[in-house]
Write the structure tokens for this entry.
Amino acid sequence: MARDLPSLNALKAFEVAARLESMSQAADELHVTHGAVSRQIRQLEDELGVALFDKVGRGIQLTAAGRQLRDACRDAFGSLREVCAEIRQADQRGPFLLACPGSLLARWFIPRLDRLNAELPELNLHLSASEGELDPRRAGVSGTLLFAAPPWPADMQVYPLRQERIGPVFSPRYSGAARLQGQPASALLNESLLHTHSRSQAWADWAHLQQIDPASLTQGQGFEHLYYLLEAALSGLGVAIAPQLLVADDIAAGRLLAPWGFVQTQHQLGLWVPKRQPQGAAQPLADWLLSELAGSSE
């Protein structure tokens, strides 16, 4: 039975010769003789039944078939080089760099970091926080925690962790706290609402789910990042819209009130890992996160 692929050694010799357009330079790069490269390419031409190079003076020139094979080899060997480099870098002793929103890091992750390090010591977790738009494809990042709505990109392995729930919260110190207690959600139409530029549609999303016209809400003080918005709410500056996960501990401790509860959005918190890299460390982390989230205050 004929082989599906020619000799990989012959293909490698051809790829280098085609890239350099020189048998001699290919021999130098491969640390073999000129004759060895020539033999490999002749073997490849015999197996394919076509000429891959034409002689032009003292040099060589790719034929149409040679150009077609050169492009395929360039892509295939290029992908192999990238994957091998990533595998070498993914040594289990190396760090797992997890990118996540700064608000999630500060308000949920850091209080649980000692427990994670104790339960997953082999993970060697490093954290990178940002309140801007996180890029799960960023070079060097092993995984990213994101709130996003499906469908998921084809090049990412997404481990869904928890459906997002959002709702209005305010401090007992807020001047309107007593007035709002026991009132329907529509009472917020008379409030100047705190909001964040990093999630500008959060109040509108909540209003739609409450069957309230978003245009009837009054936007008050704005903050660049969610972390600052929550600090403002804790300081009694007004009513903020917040993910339940990030304020559950404050509600349980009485630092924040959520009289209207929380509504589920289309977004999910997920661990995003590029499919091009090994998934070995991602699954234990995803399992740990699922367990911790299941135990978080509701």
Observations:
- The CA atoms of residues 110 and 177 lie 30 Å apart.
- The mean pLDDT is 89.
- The first strand starts at residue 53 and ends at 56.
- The first helix runs from residue 8 to 20.
